[in-house]
Amino acid sequence: MRPEKHSLTLRGHRTSVSLESQFWKAFLEISAHEGKTINGLAAQIDEARAPETGLATAIRGYVLQWYQDQHEALSAGKSRPQT
């Protein structure tokens, strides 16, 4: 699986990130779920990332963390005693 270039606009400036198709698809799904544009979510991630972290790496980390959080929330819900 090779990364593919995807174009983004961050605060009025065009840029591109190289992401594997699975990460790009998940990134699109997350932005839709959160009601944000892909560019808006990318800008949010860009602002929060450490200077030494590339944007593509930060997006991958965000996607992974988002799905881990979803999994933990589901697991917590299943472990509650039923009333």
Shape field: globular
Roughly what percent helix? Answer: 55-70%
Largest β-sheet summary: 2 strands, antiparallel
How many domains in all? 1
How would you characterize the overall build of this protein?
This protein has helices at residues 21-33, 38-48, 55-79, and strands at 4-10, 13-19. The protein has a two-stranded antiparallel ribbon with strand order 1-2. It contains 3 helices and 2 strands. It is globular, with a radius of gyration of 15 Å. The mean pLDDT is 92. By secondary structure, it is an alpha+beta fold. Helix content is 59%, strand content 17%. Helix 1 (21-33) packs across helix 3 (55-79). The N and C termini lie far apart (46 Å). The chain has a single domain (4-79), classed as Arc Repressor Mutant (Orthogonal Bundle), CATH 1.10.1220.
Summarize the entry for a quick read:
This protein has 83 residues and is an alpha+beta fold. The chain contains three helices and two strands, in the order E-E-H-H-H.
List keywords for this structure.
single chain; 83 residues; alpha+beta; Arc Repressor Mutant; two-stranded antiparallel sheet; 2 strands; globular
Strand and helix layout:
Layout: E1 4-10, E2 13-19, H1 21-33, H2 38-48, H3 55-79
Antiparallel strand pairs: 1-2
